[in-house]
Predict the structure.
Amino acid sequence: MFDKKQFLKEINAKNPHQPEFIQAVEEVVGSLSQFLNDNPKYTDAKILERMCEPDRVVSFRVSWVDDEGKVQVNRGYRVQFNNAIGPYKGGLRFHPSVNLSILKFLGFEQIFKNSLTGLSMGGGKGGSDFDPHGKSDAEVMKFCQAFMSELYKYIGADVDVPAGDIGVGAREIGFMFGQYKRVTGRFEGVLTGKGLGWGGSAIRTEATGYGLIYFVEEMLKQAGEQLKGKEILVSGSGNVAQHAIEKAIAKGAKVLTVSDSDGYIYDNEGINEDKLKFIKELKNVNRGRIHEYAEKFKVQYFEGKKPWGEKADIALPCATENEIFAEDANSLVKNGVKLVAEGANMPSTAEAIEVYREKEILFAPGKASNAGGVAVSGLEMSQNSQRLSMSDDEVDKKLAEIMADIHAKCYKHGLKNGVVDYVDGANIAGFQKVADAMLAQGVI
Ligand code: GLU
């Protein structure tokens, strides 16, 4: 018998001051209780207890010298959570909010997400409290080199394969790959998200956002609806948001909002291709703020606010964790939103998910709906192993298939009394594959 209360008591006691990690575990445990009771082989082998304890956590000092010649000190981490079904795999986040709780929640989620893709990838995550905002390219390079000078000892193409996340894009991956190559002397698929000319995969940049829209299409199809003509609220304006918008407008939907940590814009006419180009330039090249969109296109800007109070059919939170609280979820429901799919990791709080369940909102958790990014990372790893590359069309087709397959798994495991609970479906399906591998591999 699985004792949920006792299990959570122990998790809380063992992980004080790690609220995000505990939140991620509680969500999974909520979905798995019944399944574990029905399948005592997992409880007997303490699979969930073992899964909640990372294989190891590495933490290290990153010292570097800024443009003024001052010494800077940051903290770097890699959480290697679980490698039952493949090498550790997950992004690196560079953001001042990074701490062990955040990286453990992200690494834990990654186990289930990577399992859902059907590819051979374990779960891991890493990063640093370094803030790339306002730093020169030279400073970012020096930081990345210092970070990799320590991290290289713990990673490798068959060991642990990091990628990007918030604050880590093509520029940072390039600098880190260069340093890995310099210190090890090896050109290997140790990082994903690489440039197209040196081992990167087609569609990797677009994959999380495109995959999110493919997943939403599957949800809508299941409900007898289509994306064309739907009004969408998007939060965030980084890589995931940009490519979700790109694919949504290509499919005939209307995207009304985008945001950054300062506020959001509301574009009554919908963001079109030209305006999206402006957002990409603004965020990827000029590293500016979203209020500049409002000034340029004469639309409303709401400082310090999130877009969840606007009328729409669909909400796609693509910024960061815990950006939708219960009152935001209630306001989404009041404003006609019928579907929420997460482009970010854990943007909905547990209380918000409660609201979606009560009000029967179709809700896809990030570990299912944003798995497209890591899925194409998995394809990048395969291409690196073969020293071959796939075309845009091949990767895009494979991505759409993987997202449809994840949807089917969530549906199969999450269907209860005619209603699909995508949270339960994703957790049960993601868990089972990893749990079976752990059972087969013995007590380690
Ligand atoms: N950071 C992304 C995620 O949250 C991608 C990870 C990867 O490609 O390894 O899934």
Notes: The chain has a mean pLDDT of 98.
